[in-house]
Amino acid sequence: MIQQQWTYKPFDKAMAKTIADEFNLPTIIAKVMELRGIVNREQSRNFFFPAQDQLHSPFLMKDMEKAIIRLHEQIQSGVGIMVYGDYDVDGTSGTSLLYLFLKSLGAEVHYYIPDRENEGYGLSKKGIKYAQYIGADLLITCDCGINAFSQIEYANELHVDVIITDHHKPDEKLPSAFAILNPNRFDCDYPFKGLCGAGVAFKFALAYCEKYGKDPELVWEHSDLVAIATAADLVPIIDENRIIVQDGIKRISEGVKPGVKALLKTGGLWDKEVTVGRLVFWFSPKINAAGRLGDAGRAVKLLTTQNSIYAMKVAKELERENDRRKEITQKMIEEAISLVNGTCDLERDNAIILGKKGWHHGVVGIVASRIKELYYKPTIIIGIDDNV
Question: Collapsing DSSP states into helix, strand and coil, what is residue 140?
Answer without folding.
Answer: strand
